[in-house]
Here is the input.
Amino acid sequence: MDLRKLKTLIDLVAESGISELEITEGDGKVRIVKSQAAPVMMQAPMQVAGPAVAGPPPATAAAAAAAPAAAAAAPAAPEAPAGHLVKSPMVGTFYRSAQPGADPFVSVGSQVKEGDTLCIIEAMKLMNEVTSPVAGRVREILVKKASRVEYGQKLYVIDAGMPGGEADE
Here is the structure.
C-alpha cells in the first residue's frame, strides 16, 4: 500500500467517528486505531469550577491556583532528581525483549552505553528499537511489558554519567 493511500486512510479515521479501521489489500494488512485517551481530559470540572458563585471567586481562584501549583510541584519533585528520562518516540506496544521468553534488553541496575537497545516498540507490525540517548545506569522502568505506550510517554529513567557501575556504591 502506498504512502499517500495510507495517509488518506489515517486522515479519514482522524476526521470520522470510528475508532479503528483495518484493511487487507493483497498480502498486506493495515490497522489504524484512533487513541481516545488524550481527548478525555478533565475539562468538565475545570469549566464547572470557573462559573462559581460571584462572592468567593478571589478565595476560590487563589485556592484553585494553589491546588494546581501543589499538584504540579508534587510530580515535579520526583522527576527532578530522577535522572535522564527516555520517552517513547511513537505509539505502539512496548516489549522489553526481542522475543517472548527471552531475557530483557535491560533491567533496573543495568549499565547502558549511548546507543544500546533498551526496548522494542511494535507499531503496525514493525519492530522499532528504542536506544539509550545517554550512558549510565537504568534506575527505573516505568512501563510494563506488552503494554500500549503513547508518543512521548516516559519509558525509562537513566542515571547518566555512571559508566563504571561503581560510581554510587
User: Anything to note?
Assistant: The first strand starts at residue 20 and ends at 25. The two ends are 54 Å apart (CA to CA). Residues 37-50, 76-81, 164-169 have pLDDT under 50 and may be disordered.
